[in-house]
Task: structure prediction
Amino acid sequence: MRGVPALTGLQRTERAERELFQELAIPSVSALPEHAADVRRNAEWLAALMDGMDMRTELVSNSGGPHPVVLGEWLGAGPSAPTVTIYGHYDVQPPDPLEEWLSPPFEPSVRDGVVYARGAADSKGQHLPWLQAARDAIAGGGSRVNLRFLIEGEEESGGKSLATLLHERPHGLRTDYVVIADAVFSPNGLPTLVTGLRGLLYAEIDAQGAAVDLHSGLFGGVAPNPFHTLVHLLASMKDREGRITIAGFHDAVEPPSPEELASWERLGDSDREVERVMGAPLEGDPDHPPLHRRWALPALDIHGLPGGFTGSGSKTVIPAHAAAKLSFRLVPNQHPDVVAEQLRAHIQAHGTPGVRLEIRRLGGAVPVRLGTDHPGVPALRAAFQEGFGAEPVLAREGFTIPVTHDFIEALGAHMLVTGFVPWDAAPHSPNEHLPLDFYRRGIATAAAFLRALG
Amino acid sequence: MLDRALQAARDQRETSQADLFELIRIPSVSALSEHAADCRHAAEWIAARLQAAGMKVELADVAGDGRRHPVIAAEWMEAGPDAPTLAIYGHYDVQPADPLDEWVSPPFEPSVRDGFVYARGSDDNKGQVMCAIRAAELALANGQLPVNLRFLIEGEEEVGGPSLPQFVKTNAQRLRTDYLFIADGQFTAPGLPNLLTGLRGLLYTEVAAVGASADLHSGIYGGVAPNPLNTLAHVISALKGRDGRVTVPGFYDGVVPPQERELEDWRRLPVTEEEQKQALGVTALEGEAEFSPLERRWARPTLDVHGILGGFQGEGQKTVIPARARAKISMRLVPDQDPDRIFDTFAEYVDSLSTPGVRITATRLSSGRAVRTGTDHPGVEAASRAFEAAYGARPVLVREGGSIPVTVDFQEALHPHLLVTGFGLPGDALHSPNEKYSLDQYFRGIEMVLHLMENLRHAPRA
Result:
């Protein structure tokens, strides 16, 4: 930016929005191999943006996965100044079901001040405010904190490139604070500082019955049907009311702290709001309040039951094989390895004689608990006060940010998990969106945080 | 007629084989709209054959809405009003070929290996209906037929379509039929043909489950969101116990147990449980343990899920709570269960099994009653002697677990004596990858139909 006349505030806002739309237009779907080139293009786009901010940039590829980590750093504040690392991810979820999008998922469309596109909330609209704030800090006479960005391309597909990088270069990446820009506001509109994240165990149970698909007329009544075995198994894992019934599953679950419970009082009753956004009544374990079920208790969901015939019309096939894709959301102090063993034992005890069941682990993440007794917390409180006019509540997130655990392990830095996205922004769903007002205020909040730390 | 026609059948086996292959190459998949033109092509091909043989042929577009497949109705009535009329039923449509990657040779390119032709439709039903088509051609080319002959061939058997039932009902007056011959099955064992005394019916449904208004992230909503797949797992697991017992209220009302004579026959059949396990490639058969495996396949109703649509079916992980899901569920019915009553109860029952946040709706895709055929009409002896002449063995009386829904419509509209049998062999992999059909069975099947025509010469009218 040096040698270029300074931009007005309006011009900066326009540029920030233009850059948001540019990144949203890249279909960086990491889970689908046909989008590999797009994922790469997104990484290169980010690196070019950081280059333009006078950062040292690097696309890091390693054995951890197929997609590079974008590393950008500006260490001009000197070795005695604190270093802030911003984490984000540039990959996005697959956009299907496509027919439910009102505008194409990779053509950002602004309606009533809200931009609609896959990745708007999760999470291109999360790291870009920090990049905008960093540019302004560096260009405006130099930031008083050292800055590092680590933006990965495998968050949605469970890759390990960033984790590998963190464990390979813990000294080169030494940092005082890590900001994980991936959380959402509370349903009643308050910013959040996250004190705990649920973990994950994602598994596929393969069920093999006969050697080939069979005609249900000829063999119905004697042929093992892997679907029936699977539904009996699945029904035995969670009862109709939502209680998970696997032996030992709840043993390690730790209740929320008194400080968290007190902060959650500020949230009010969000149940009706959750129902409104879902468009359906709440379900789940009646022994615990819904907020606890979303944040502090484990969950089990079936994501798909592939196999057999799902086309239009009728085909009377007894499939030779079927599968169940399912995941457990885990809470402190559960561990995916332990739950995987419990699941294995449960499956062994709940099969049927003619069907072979095998479990494949597709992903896992350890649940994490985050402390609030470091200087980053008051700085963030003040920054949100400036950007959004509200202090963050101590919240938890129900989802996984697997890399949080790796940051803690490898770098031991103070963690700040927060974000600039409203809670009902439809991440992973059709018509994912982000109000542009949140984006602008996010930029202001990020800028205030960097000033407050320096 | 008979001797000359039989001789011609033996002399022209290469032609018969080439004809069958031509028909197999037409991918007439009735369930998939992109194959509609292929279905018509198959119908026109058969119609042209029967016309060339000297029959009066009608290609009827019954529904006339362009989404249905034509019925072929052909007749040759020159044996006169006192001679019996033999009608032959078959279907030219086939099942979808998927999963394609499991086929050793392409499904619509007939490949001969060890005396079998491998292709979709080779057994079910092109290879069997072609036995009768070839027999009619050879008989008409070699003298006066002893019976009146009629073909009623449809293209919607695999989808439970309405065209043939509607055609038969509307035209019942002019479709005079005394004996109805249906070859759409398999021998009990190599060298052991059968005649059917009963067929199971089918009630095919789709159960839709709707939860949230859009797909949800399981991290954010897991623990509070209704999940239609979780609910369907509970619903389906409640529909049929691990013991194979269907729990739909009143489901077993009206079930008529097989006659002791049938059960005796079945106990004598050379089919062991071990062989059935091997045929299926499983370590254990499942189902109602208090009934023998054959009884479970032939005389007991059951319920199976065929597929569950919804959520993420691809490779890898996607943490979605789907907004909606759908399960394809069918029930095999036995005499004298009532599909209408069972569907109504089923729809109410699945709804009652739902969870608070999920709405469940059952839709009927098709249904057909189970059939009991008589075992003592004159056609049974005529067919038994025809099998003996062509294959060297008289048929055993068995039942069939599959449905030929149109038998119900034939029975109600035309009241014929039913002769339900088949020329396939066990292990022909119907509806599965690598479906196959024995060419020897095919050639002998042509001769069997020729003998049947001759044996019905003096048979009384129905």
In short: Chain B has a mean pLDDT of 94. Chain B touches chain A through 97 residues (CB under 8 Å). The CA atoms of residues 76 and 149 of chain B lie 5 Å apart. The radius of gyration of chain B is 23 Å.
